[in-house]
Amino acid sequence: MDASAVSGKEHTVGAFQRRAAALMCVLLVAGGIFLTPVANQPWLPVPGYMTAFGMAMVITNIMLTMLLFGRGATENNRVIISLGTAYFFVAIIFLPLMASFPGGIMPGELIGSQVSAVWLWSFWHMGFGVLVLRFAYLAGGSRVRRSQPWKEAAITVLGVLILTLVSTVGVEYLPPLYVDGKTFFSGYARCIPWSIMAIDMFAAIKLLRLPQRTPEQLWLIVGMFAACFDVWLTFHGTSRFSLGWYVSKVAGVFTSMVVLVSLFRELSQLYRRVYQTNIVLSALANQDGLTSLANRRRFDEILQAEWARAQRYNQPISLLMIDVDHFKKFNDRFGHLDGDDCLRVIGKVLRDCSKRPDDLAARYGGEEFAMVLPFTSASGADALARRICLVLGELAIPHPDVKAGVVSVSIGVATIVPNAEMLPEKVISAADGALYLAKEAGRNCVRHASDMMRVMPAKYVS
Fold this sequence. Notes:
2 domains; 462 residues; Alpha-Beta Plaits; single chain; 7% strand; alpha+beta; 13 helices; Rhopdopsin 7-helix transmembrane proteins; disordered C terminus
C-alpha cells in the first residue's frame, strides 16, 4: 500500500455530498413554500414538547462544541474554534430560553416572562447567524491570529448573561413584540425575523463563495437554509402550538444535526485513514526498503517470539544465515544498480522458497540474509537451504568473478531446541559459525552447525 494514498489527504467534498446538500436545500425551500399557507393552523399543546426540543438542542450543540473546540485546539485553528463558538452560543442561550418559556423546565416561567422567551429566541437566531458569518469571513481570510477555546467560551458566556438580563430584567425597555397578547412579531416587530433571515442568507452566500469547501462548511450551508426555514415558519405560525411553530422546532434541531452528522462521518473517515496509515507505517518500520523482506528489527522481534514458543513447546527452531558469494566483486563489475537488482531477485527467491506462513525471510544486513524456521528440524532446514541454492542457480545471473560463473550463495544452518539457559543469540552464533564453514569450503554450498560441535557445544537435533 502506498503511504501517500492514506496520508496527507485533504477533507474534500465529493459530488455525492454536494448533490445531497443541494437536494436538502431545495426540499427546505419547497417545504417552506408548501407549509406557509397552513403554518398558523392551531394544534393541540403537546406536554413536554418544548422540554424535549430544548434538551435536544443543548445536547446536540454541546457535542458540536466539544468536537470543534477539540479539533481547533489540536490544529491551533481559530477558524474551527470560531465555528465551535457559534454552537456553544446556541447551547448556552437555550438554558435561559427554556427557563423563560412557560412549561420549558417547570410549569410557568422560571425567569422572565413569555416575552422574554421570544426575545431570547430572537437573540439565539440572530447571534448564531452573526457568529456563522464571522466564521465564514475567517475561513476566507489568508491570515488568522491564534485563539484559545476557553477565551471564546468565556466571552460567549458573558454575552449570553448580558442578553439574558436584557431579555428578563430589562424586557420592559425593549420594543413590544405582542399587539394582541397572542400574535408575536406584529407591527414594526416584523423586521426582527426578516433581519434574522437576511443575516442567515448572507452567511450562506458567504459560505458558498469560499474557494475551498470542507464537509462541515457544506452542511453548515444546509444548516443556514434550515435556520431560515425555522424563522420563516415561526413567523408565519404567528403563535405557540401552531403547525408552523411545531415544524420550525424540528428545523432548529436539524440546523445543528446535519453538521454534527457531517463531523461524525469525517471522524469515522479519519479513524479509517489513521488505521490504514498505521498499517503502512508498521510495514515500513518492519520492512527492508530494497528487497521488501523483513528488516533486521523485524527479524529480532520474530526470532525472540519464536524462540520463546519453541522453548514452551520443547520444539526445534532452525535458522539459515545466507551470504551472497563475492557480492563486492559483482558490484565493482556491474555497478550498484545491478547489485540492487541482484539483491531483489535473491529476496524473491527466499520468499518463493519459504512456503509456511510462520517462516520469516529477512535482510540481515548488506548482502546477508536470514531465515527463521519455527518448529523445523535440521533435515527440513537443510532441504530448504539446498532448494534456495538450486533455484538461484537455475536463474543463472551472470557473475564472472566466481567459480560457477553465476550468482550463488553460501548458507549456514543451525537447529536448536531451546531451554531456559539459552538465549536466541545462541542460534545466531551457531548459524554464523556454519556460514563461516561454508565460505571456507569454497562457497556455493550449505553447512550445518553440527559440523562445528567442538567450537560451539549446544543441543542440536536432526
